[in-house]
Write a structure and sequence with these properties.
Blueprint: E1 7-18, E2 21-33, E3 38-42, H1 49-56, E4 64-69, E5 72-73, H2 79-88, E6 90-93, H3 107-114, H4 116-120, H5 128-134, H6 150-162, E7 168-172, H7 180-197, E8 200-204, H8 208-213, E9 216-221, E10 224-230, E11 233-235, H9 248-253, E12 260-265, E13 268-273
Parallel strand pairs: 3-8, 3-9, 6-7, 7-8
Antiparallel strand pairs: 1-2, 1-4, 4-5, 9-10, 10-11, 12-13
Length: about 280
Amino acid sequence: MSAAQPITTAGLVHIYRSEGHDVAALSGVDLVVPAGEVVGLLGPSGSGKSTLLALLAGLFRPSAGKIYVGERELSTLPAKDLDAYQAQVASLMLQGARRNLIPYLTGRQNVAFAQERARALGTPVPEVGEVLASVGAVGFADDPLARLSQGQLQLLALAVALAPAPGVLLADEPTSALDHVAREQVLAAILAANATAGTTVVVVTHDPEVAARLPRTITIRDGRIGGEGRSGEEYAVITADGFLPLPGHIRNALPPGTLVRIEDQEGGYLIVPQTAHSAKLPDP
């Protein structure tokens, strides 16, 4: 079993080519996730959430910036060490249950297969039945996958991700396309993995009900961290380079190009629009 690992990114940038053009998926992400914390990544499609998750999983290297998981710096990790990291430390649960499962194996066989790399490296792994029980999948673990519901498949996909007892669980939209009951089962199993094993968890989600259940959320906008939620309170986040993304309702009220003045107020600051074209903010 791997110990829970902290995650830190500094100035993380990722650029990819699309139709002959460079596109910045991430534009300077500074993120700190303490060991054993549960964090949700929110934001519109294309904002960079899944790219960030893939980088944390070591699927590819960033264009610039650094990623630390524990003491490992992923962007400079040799291929052999990166393979060990993916086998022993970080598990990635891809969006769509079937992408995580070998179709001709049962759920039990999938979990056993997912442990082979870690076991070969000498990492102790839990019993297959223990993993299946932890997500509530014992009752259908030996059935052909073709007979299972979407919710059952997603629980097995989670069991596969938890099979090597990782220190970090990265889950991309684990509750998408599920009904209310299945969604609650999957979310409960993820939170239980954190509570019982202390696993650090990063979850990408579009579901506001799922986000509301998470103790901390981070909103990604235009490749940057645009806000953070803690215990139901929403906050803007000042980046390392001094960039301050405005909350959505203020961005909508102030058109691009608006000049603002930041005035000191007792106990805080006031944003005051200065141009003739700026929209009036609603009274609080």
